[in-house]
Here is the input.
Amino acid sequence: MSGHNKWSTIKRKKGALDAKRSKIFSKIIKDITIAVKEGGADPDGNPRLRLAIANAKGASMPKENIQRAINKGSEKDAAALIETTYEGKGPHGIAIFVECTTDNLQRTVSNIRAYFNKYGGELGQNGMLNYLFDRKGVFVIPKGDLKQEEFEMEVIDAGAEDITLEEGLFTITTAMEDFGSMMKKMEQLEIGPESASLQRIPKTTVTLDEDSTRKVLRLVDIIEEDEDVQNVFHNLEITDEMADKL
Here is the structure.
């Protein structure tokens, strides 16, 4: 499991995800709004919207919130949202890749640069980290009553590259080009993922001591709290031993 996903699991166990539910909903609403603007308000003909709605349901977002976001995206005078990315190095040279959705690029880049500067990092040029990350599809699915062997055979057939089962959750990784086929497989099996997304998975990772790890994750958490930030990826390896300490 990548450091990013390991840290997400730790925060789930600590209850931090529940505490940040409004932040999670805000991210999903932006995804829905952009999806509607790009492909229309009909999820049957808009794969990106269908995915955003699935993620909303996985996060237990109320139906009225989902519909409100769809309506907002359909409004002609709705604020124009722009998707952008930023790349930099955190403490001890850890690579950090930030994905944002914003209505004010100047505000967003100013904030992201300030976080890097304040917490021991440095914002760099876009493209500087491309060689360090692969785009992968990542699906998180509650095990529930699923039979592990049968389920794994089904998702392998749909292009699963890696499958882990931890804390009652399957995490499935696919190549980017197999993301769509895995979504279709989930629909075919009538399984609602807790989340499904394209993520940036590090090709190689770096292990640090506890103090250094905490410094890096402090920067990661600060960036994630920004209202314009959708996702933060990094190449810090969090071992099981380190996870227990954290």
Remarks:
- Confidence is low (pLDDT under 50) at residues 13-17.
- The domain at 82-131+203-245 is CATH 3.30.70.980 (Alpha-Beta Plaits).
